[in-house]
Amino acid sequence: MPDLIYKPESHKIIGAAIEVHKTLGNGFLEAVYQEALAIEFELQTISYEKEKQLRIKYKDQILEKYYIADFVCYDKIIVECKALKGLLPEHESQILNYLYATNIKLGLLINFGRNKVEVKRVANLDGLIKASP
Fold first, then answer.
1. What is the pairing mode between strands 106-111 and 77-82?
2. Considering the entire predicted model, what is its pTM?
3. pLDDT per residue rounded down to tens, the chain (133 residues)
């Protein structure tokens, strides 16, 4: 199996998410976890932009419409937070769209809504999408 892309950075982000979940547990709204995760990123010196606008191109033109990612960490990893009973295919589609729109190579879908943090890695490597739990 090939090495994971941005392994040290993604492990640090996942560790921060685990710390947030360990402290808060499940049952809060997504916005609560986002705010707590931003604090944890600061505490762990993880560089991030919160609610980053992701511009979309169409035939070399920038559209007026844009996506908003919960976080972009290290200028190269999209982090999307959820607080649900479980992740659904449309949540993975959301992060896939973000990757396609930006040419960013890695997205982390983090669900705080269960007893244990659920993380799905989605990588866009040379046009090949790979998802792993």
1. parallel
2. 0.89
3. 356 899 999 999 999 999 999 999 999 999 999 999 999 999 999 999 999 999 988 888 999 999 999 999 999 999 999 999 999 889 998 999 899 888 899 999 999 999 999 999 998 876 555 555 5
